[in-house]
Specification:
The structure is a homodimer.
Chain A (H helix, E strand, L loop, with lengths): L2 E6 L3 H13 L5 E6 L12 H5 L14 H6 L3 E3 L3 E6 L4 E5 L5 E5 L2 E4 L3 E3 L12 E2 L4 H12 L5 E5 L3 H12 L3 E6 L10 H13 L3 E4 L3 E6 L5 E6 L3 E3 L2 E4 L3 E3 L2 H5 L24 E3 L6 E3 L4 E3 L4 H15 L13 E5 L2 E7 L2 H6 L4 E9 L10 E9 L5 E8 L7 H10 L3 H5 L15 H19 L1
Parallel strand pairs in A: 1-2, 1-7, 2-3, 7-18, 9-16, 10-11, 10-16, 11-12
Antiparallel strand pairs in A: 4-5, 5-6, 8-17, 13-14, 14-15, 19-20, 21-22, 22-25, 23-24, 24-25
Chain lengths: ~450, ~450
């Protein structure tokens, strides 16, 4: 008998699950219906800052697989159709089409891939014209249309996280005066403050004004109703364009209404196979779920396309009759502002403390190539290791070309549960164009291993 | 009572050992005498191709620490002084100074860091003017002097390993017509033939003529006695300059004469602490030792500055009263020819076979950045995994910018003994400028994991 898979959300998690299930089960065996309330499927939200900045073309380039491509693979994709209710007891969802018509669709398997929604603080003016999000292709088009008007000179970016610093770069590339407003003391709050300060310094050298430690209170509008300034506790920042990069939260209203289990961050809680806990045929992946951090052993909300793709593939494999599990994450993230690369993995100090871990740290400066090789870029590497055990807990890197992806060394070491002593003699690739004879990560590992040893001696 | 440490060889292993021992023990406690037969200490041999190619300045830039700097740290460094005999029974070495005077020096600890010597096949003409090695600063100066003469148009590089391909790049940078002569079927014999073919194709596109599968028989000289052509079994290759990159072998004649234990490759055999086996106060590190390959569990000769530095540090720590061991290597190596990056770690197919391992492989093509991001460089990644266990055995990468250092992911995974299934969901850094949503290494891991699973099903 043919089963039916219903997918809510046409992006990375949902459509990867659908594609992978289809790969394993033909249409006679598995009917697939996918609901997407927007106009596009499978687009790279992470690419939007680069599209707005003009580094990449768009929006077509950002669409990994079009609606027609999905349909050609036997997926009944319904764009402009919003799911308004999940009824897990009867195994069905209610949807509303573009024409307003509602209907119920029953499922044998349900995949929830509803993603995340941008955080918009409820302050005056936040919804005014001239204030742009960076979440959807429509957001990107609206921001680009505003930039193309030509009378835009000053940009205020609200939020100093990944999207915020990437949008600061995008605005610089448009030749604008850029102010970054961030309620934290430093941009890149996913780094420790000492590493965030390096990012701040680099951004200031790029000409970005950083207004930190100040929450946004209001967006002032002009006589034409458009945003004209961002007001914080401390100052008023004139703006011809305002970009919001305040992060996202799991989009789980539907799931909450259906009584599905949510975690501390509002994300769906799943088992290792990505099945929603307490259910037997409801699955969830991507920005709407919480994931296990393998270092802190706690659930976290980490909205990243790479996790969504992996989780979608795992869900599709399981629905397809195979077996796959998601092991969890170690908190790796990389980004850049112009030539400044930023990377982190594992726990930062405050996260380690919150997890009840005690630790030592070490920070080193080194270069991406042999010091004598041209364009050897400086980088600062900070390593955090657990006291006594010497287990690596986290790695943070800020520097020039070749800095960011070095964090993968830490990501693998964290996954393997390595100690920093074990990392000291890792056989990493060495040649003058690619690394000093001691890779910067090894130098950091060595220094933090010395700190672990000194700490042990001190008792 | 003051002890005396004697070091033979003033390069990476020996001088790092000396410096590290000095850091831990002051001159009152440990006298350090270092013998170096050449004129320099602590220079980066790996940098010589880039100096000859004009990419880096030299030779000063290649000297990590000068003789005077070593002396300022209380090391009695004797340049131009060759050790001619080791007498382990009486704990002394005989040396001959520049003036020909010989003397015995007794030691409490001896470090052998005699490095490696270039392989020079005993064929006619091999020592003619116009034939250059790439091992010492003197080699580099001689080659550069020849290139500066201005009448040099055609270069023949003999040997297709790391030094060979790097010297091919150097010769291209001088605007020469370059022929690479290699007795193997492909350059880069440390890769599998299918991956070596990619290097060959790329080098041919750069304009390098590749004469493979042909051993060198003779170097012809002209009326002026200078090399004028390289003769192989198959052809005669006219040359205004001949560069030898035929690899090196451990320089262990002294050690052999002293009855110290050598392995199958002629390198000194040490214990984990880098003490020469069967001795209690003789240590060895760098290009003159064999190292344990953690994947094949056999000894190998891997002459690389990064190992020499690590081993020197370990020796110095142990002599200094601390405790450190060298865990072994996994066979990581990276290089490049112009924009083509080459990397490998672990075992290639023939090495795995020789170690008695059975395996499956998978090869994928992917990009260094999101496909839509500018300058996304193509790369080919080959992964080798053990049958049944699924343990990663090796990783090879050939591609554009961002390819080489990705091999570090494999190096850490090999060290940790990870299976390719464990690698599939590694939390690697993802952002459009740095990686596709699935890092190329993950794509390869996934494909080879599928191959492992299919192989298991097939029994």
């Amino acid at each position: 008998m043919t089963e039916r898979l219903v997918v809510i959300g046409g992006d990375a998690a949902g459509m990867t699950a659908a594609s992978q299930a289809r790969r394993r089960r033909p249409a006679e065996d598995l009917e697939i219906v996918a609901f997407e309330r927007g106009r596009h499927t499978s687009f790279s939200a992470c690419g939007i800052p680069y599209w707005i900045g003009g580094t990449v073309s768009g929006p077509e380039a950002l669409i990994a697989r079009t609606a027609d491509e999905h349909r050609a693979r036997g997926i009944d994709l319904r764009l402009g159709t919003e799911v308004t209710e999940i009824d897990p007891d009867r195994g069905r969802v209610r949807s509303r089409g573009a024409d307003g018509r509602e209907e119920w669709t029953s499922y044998d398997h349900l995949v929830i891939g509803t993603g995340a929604v941008p955080i918009r603080p409820p302050i005056p003016g936040i919804d005014a014209p001239g204030v742009y999000g960076v979440q959807t292709l429509d957001d990107g088009e609206a921001a680009l249309a505003a930039l193309d008007r030509g009378d835009v000179r000053r940009a205020v970016v609200v939020g100093g996280g990944y999207i915020g610093v990437e949008m600061a770069e995008a605005m610089l590339l448009h030749g604008l005066e850029v102010t970054l407003v961030d309620r934290n003391d430093q941009p890149m709050n996913t780094l420790d403050p000492d590493m965030g300060r390096l990012v701040r310094k680099e951004m200031e050298q790029l000409g970005v004004r950083i207004a930190s430690g100040a929450a946004v209170r209001e967006v002032l509008t002009g006589p034409d109703g458009r945003a004209r300034a961002v007001v914080t506790d401390e100052a008023e920042h004139p703006a011809d364009i305002v970009v919001l990069g305040l992060g996202v939260r799991p989009n789980t209203e539907l799931a909450r209404a259906a009584g599905l289990p949510l975690g501390a961050y509002g994300g769906l809680l799943t088992d290792r196979a990505m099945r929603v806990r307490g259910t037997d045929r409801v699955w969830a992946g991507g920005d709407c779920v919480e994931v296990l951090n393998l270092v802190s052993r706690t659930e976290q909300h980490v909205p990243l396309g790479t996790h969504a793709n992996k989780q979608g593939r795992i869900i599709g494999t399981n629905i397809g009759g195979g077996y796959a599990t998601f092991p969890g994450i170690v908190g790796t993230a990389v980004s850049k502002v112009c030539a400044v690369e930023i990377a982190r993995t594992g726990l930062k100090e405050s996260q380690a403390r919150a997890a009840g871990l005690r630790f030592v740290t070490a920070t080193v400066e080194s270069t991406s190539r042999a010091g004598y090789y041209p364009d050897a870029g400086l980088m600062t590497v900070k390593a955090i290791a657990e006291r006594n055990s010497g287990r690596l807990l986290g790695l943070q890197i800020v520097g020039r070309e070749g800095a960011a992806k070095r964090v993968d060394i830490g990501a693998v070491a964290l996954t393997a549960g390595m100690t920093v002593e074990q990392m000291v003699d890792l056989d990493l690739g060495y040649a003058p164009p690619f690394s000093p004879v001691w890779d910067p990560v090894l130098v950091a590992a060595r220094k933090v291993a010395d700190a672990v040893a000194a700490d042990r001696r001190a008792g």
